[in-house]
Each structure stands twice: as structure tokens, then as C-alpha cells.
Amino acid sequence: MIYLDYNATTPVLPEVFEAMIPYLTSEWGNPSSTYKFGSKLKTVIETARAQVAELIGARSMEIIFTSCATESNNTAINAALKANPRKRHIVTSAVEHSSVLNYCKALEKEDYRVTYLPVDSEGLLNLADLENAITEETAVVSLIWANNETGVLFPVKEIGEICRSHGVLFHCDAVQAVGKVEIEVQNVQVDYLSLTGHYSVYEHFTYLAASPSHPVTFRSHQFKGVGFPKSLSLKDRETFDVVKTDRAGLEVRVTGLERTLVDVLNRPDLTGSWEEIWRSLESVEFFDLEKVTAYVDLLGNATTAAKVGFFLEQHRDSLMVDEAHLKTFRDRRPRRPHYLERSRRKAGRFVAAWNLVVPEEVYGRSWEELR
Ligand SMILES: Cc1ncc(COP(=O)(O)O)c(C=O)c1O
Description:
alpha/beta; binds pyridoxal-5'-phosphate
């Protein structure tokens, strides 16, 4: 079978399936329990909540999990109506998902008035119609971000501004948008946003670019080019440990393992969480330490030298790191204490040997316990 209806739903990504296995098999307790079998799962849920929040630039406390997007849409509209009990008018469009349209029809039977805005032959909304539809009686505007049948994107930013200027709450069904278009809730004046996990195939690539470039979104993939470290450009050594490889007839240039080790520790803000960094690096069985040292010297950053030294010392047995190599990095460490990650200064353990403040979970490699 060739399945062409990814707007109806999508298959679960293998990594999602993998990540869920423990909670569908052995770790099935109730997180609200007072005993550990259940309560330890609270951390897992809070981690998931923080990840969803990060995806859309929200705060964790703003994320409420529901059983499906239909429930999210209904709950949001209902909450907006409850917040304005005297106002009994709703504005939506004729092309909303049935979960919104059916709920609005049901509300009409409860003496709410609903305006269904039309769209033109291209599926677009006329913002003047929206302005005209809003009255003193309007409690909420509910409009879709990406249409589930036509793919048309409504101008959410402008809609939010109109709603705000009239003091009306705005609910947006962003179910088909999340993971496909960038959503930063700080940039859109939305009061309620419905999301779901069953459509999202979201990938984010960060790559080294010779000249600065704006992020580009292609299908569900976002590409972000970042410049080379300045110290490399100054020495004309951008291509240090760059390997050329053939991918389906296309020449692809990637950084070698040694440079990658140093690069991810040098710019953890571009790389991912510490768990991702540590686990990925731990999957490498061998590093050429001479090359690592040469690259650290090219970057000329004392904190990076200490981070690399700390990682190598922590893995000295598996990576067969000898004292002479550790000394090389120790000689290059910073004179005063530095954070493992400057941009996300996080209290942790002070490791005097490297003059580094290291988050507790990195020090103890304790993320396993969170699973
Ligand atoms: C735009 C939109 N909103 C809401 C829903 C409802 O989603 P769920 O099936 O999770 O209730 C869908 C699902 O098809 C949708 O495409």
C-alpha cells in the first residue's frame, strides 16, 4: 500500500516508538501516586512538557496535555467562553476542522451565536471580514493555522493583532502547522494554541556555512547555517579535519570525528542537550588524540580545552586516554572557573582539575535514571 494521506495522520517515528517502549511495558505507574513506582514518572512527564514548551517558545506551565487535538480545540474554546461568561458570540471560519465546526454547532444550540467567515476561491481569509465580524459580544475568535485539507496558511500574526486590538481572545488550531512551520508563541498574539503529536515529522539541521545564511525550511526540515569559528577563519584553517564523502552522486563535506568532538563541546548551544551530546560522543570508540589536540589548539579556547579534557578523563578507560594526553589539555585549561555551558549557566559540581562547573547529571552521567 502507498499511503498518501499524511494530513489524516502519520506513522510514529521509530525513535518515538523506542522512547515510548518503557512506558508501555515496564514503567506504567500513575505519576500522581504517592509511592515511587508511579511518582518517579512525574519527572518523565515534566521533561516531555518542557520539550513541548521549547518547541513553540512557551513556558512549561503553559502546556496542558489532552487526549487528542479534538479535546484541545474544545477545551480551549470552552475555556475562552468561561472566561467571558457574558459574551455569547464566537467567530470562526467555514473551513475549520470538524472538531471546531461541530463544537460550534453544538454551542449554537446553547444560545451562542457563531459567525462562520467565508474564504475565497484560493481558501484565503479576508481580514476585513474578521474585523467586521468582531463585536462587543465576541468572546473568542477560533481560526486554524494550516488547513488540514488545502494546506492554506492563515495569517496568524495579523489575526492575533486584530483580536488583541479588540480585546478578544484568540484560539488557534495549529495541529497541522506544528513541526512544519516555525511557531514562536512570543511572536504571535495567541491565547490558546492546539497542537498534536500525530502529524509532526520535525527535523532541524545545523550546518557550517562559509557565509552567514538565514534559516531555510524545506518540507518539514529546517536548515540553519552557522559561521565557522572565527579563530579558524583568521588562520585560514576552516577545512581542518573536513572529510569529503559521496552521497548518491553528491559530494558532501562533513567534519571528522575528532573535530566533531571538539566542535560540539565548543558550541553546545548549537548541538542539543547534554544528554544528546554525551550519549552521541560515547558511541564513538576511538579518537585520534593528536588530531583532537591540534584542533583544540587551532580554536585556542581554554574552556573548550578543559571541556575536552574533562570528557576524555571521564572516558579514559574506554577511549584509552593516557596521562600525557590529559596533561596536554590540563595545561590549556582556564585559570578561573568556567561553566560547561556559558549560555545556560547552571549550578553544578565544581571540578577543580579542569576549573569547570559541570551540571550534576553530566558529572554523574545520571540521565539513565530519568528514563
Ligand atoms: C486541523 C486539525 N485539527 C484538529 C484535528 C483533530 O485531531 P485529533 O484526531 O487528534 O482529535 C485534526 C485531525 O485530523 C486536524 O487536522
